[in-house]
């Protein structure tokens, strides 16, 4: 296999059948935790970085969510599922009904290791259909061996999702995907673009039985309606020296916000939620990475004070969602089953 790091970007277009929810329906909150090994986000990816010591501290996050009776979905990758230190406590939480388990593909630490280690190959959808499917199958089987259950929810690491991913999930009996990150474009690294996607859930696949619950990412600000062209123009390479994206955000003109306590303030999270809610959106995904529960493992939590602030943002957001919006907590599996039963 040749080095594909400079190859064409992945086409993430999909035929979609959108889910229509009445506006009187209570908004649903899904908490998705990318549960993965610790690695240096500022350095090239390595197959040797598979430590999972942050899982010793996952109870702090779990206790915050338990206050609001939220059952998080921990999408686990291969290093987590392959090491008792990674999966033992999660297995107990799952067996008690306090957590749901899904699958999360980090191709560079997920066998088989037949592809070169390049930036492009960190996107599962760039590996080729057969290799991507084999990695997902091995991950699924390892999770079943460690947790005693077959996962049905999938999230691609680095949002590396495309049509080949959809085909693999369908063949491997997954029912829900949570990989799509609306408004985001990863083509500069050889990954997919989701610039034309919004936050509405939809069914896809040959038989339209796979449910997509996208990340909750959208534009906020006084010019949010023109968010995409403004943000794309400000992001053009010749203009990056001016840091126009940051200027537009600070001036309140347009800001691309992901519903996550990592890299976003509570005010930003509330603002994008309110905007989506008033547009009729009734499904919201709060996402984060498991290593953020241990200081020093991600850029978002560097010390104990950062960790306290991180957990406080999660708690305050849950209070806002369930209190002010009269929202309810759910899981991707529960939501999928409810749609199928309707």
Write the layout of secondary structure elements.
Blueprint: E1 17-18, E2 28-35, H1 58-67, E3 73-76, H2 78-82, H3 84-96, E4 100-105, H4 129-147, E5 153-156, H5 163-171, E6 176-177, E7 202-204, E8 210-212, E9 217-220, H6 227-234, H7 244-250, E10 255-258, H8 266-278, E11 283-289, H9 304-324, E12 328-329, H10 332-341
Parallel strand pairs: 2-3, 2-11, 2-12, 3-4, 4-5, 5-6, 6-8
Antiparallel strand pairs: 1-7, 7-8, 9-10
Helix pairs in contact: 1-9, 4-5
Explained architecture:
The chain contains 10 helices and 12 strands. It has 342 residues and is α/β, with parallel strands linked by helices. The chain folds into 2 domains: 26-216 and 259-341, Alpha-Beta Barrel (TIM Barrel); 218-258, no CATH class. The strands form 2 sheets. Strands 1, 2, 3, 4, 5, 6, 7, 8, 11 and 12 form a 10-stranded mixed sheet that branches. A two-stranded antiparallel sheet has the order 9-10. Helix 1 packs parallel to helix 9 and helix 4 crosses helix 5 (163-171).
């Amino acid at each position: 296999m040749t080095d594909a790091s400079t190859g064409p970007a992945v086409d993430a277009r999909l035929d979609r059948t959108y889910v229509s929810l009445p506006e009187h329906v209570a908004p649903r909150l899904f908490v998705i935790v990318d549960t993965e090994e610790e690695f240096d986000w500022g350095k090239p990816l390595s197959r040797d970085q598979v430590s999972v010591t942050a899982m010793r501290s996952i109870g702090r996050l779990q206790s915050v969510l338990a206050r609001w009776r939220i059952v998080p979905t921990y999408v686990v990758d291969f290093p987590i599922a392959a090491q008792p230190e990674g999966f033992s406590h999660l297995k107990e939480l799952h067996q008690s009904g306090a957590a749901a388990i899904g699958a999360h593909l980090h191709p560079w630490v997920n066998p088989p290791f037949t592809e070169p280690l390049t930036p492009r190959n960190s996107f599962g959808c760039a590996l080729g259909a057969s290799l991507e499917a084999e990695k997902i199958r091995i991950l699924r089987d390892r999770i079943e061996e460690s947790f005693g259950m077959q996962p049905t929810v999938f999230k691609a690491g680095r949002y590396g999702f495309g049509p080949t991913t959809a085909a693999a999930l369908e063949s491997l009996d997954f029912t829900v995907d949570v990989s799509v990150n609306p408004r985001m474009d990863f083509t500069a690294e050889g990954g997919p673009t989701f610039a034309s996607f919004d936050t509405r859930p939809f069914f896809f696949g040959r038989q339209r039985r796979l449910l997509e619950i996208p990340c909750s990412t959208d534009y906020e600000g006084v010019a949010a309606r023109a968010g995409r062209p403004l943000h794309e123009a400000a992001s053009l390479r010749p203009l990056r020296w001016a840091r126009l994206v940051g200027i537009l955000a600070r001036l309140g003109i347009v800001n691309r916000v992901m519903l996550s306590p990592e890299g976003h303030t509570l005010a930003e999270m509330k603002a994008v939620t309110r905007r989506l809610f008033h547009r009729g959106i009734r499904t919201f995904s709060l996402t984060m990475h498991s290593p953020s529960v241990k200081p020093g493992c991600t850029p978002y939590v560097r010390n104990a004070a950062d960790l306290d602030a991180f957990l406080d943002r999660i708690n305050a957001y849950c209070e806002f969602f369930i209190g002010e919006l009269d929202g309810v907590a759910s899981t991707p599996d529960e939501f999928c089953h409810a749609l199928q039963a309707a």
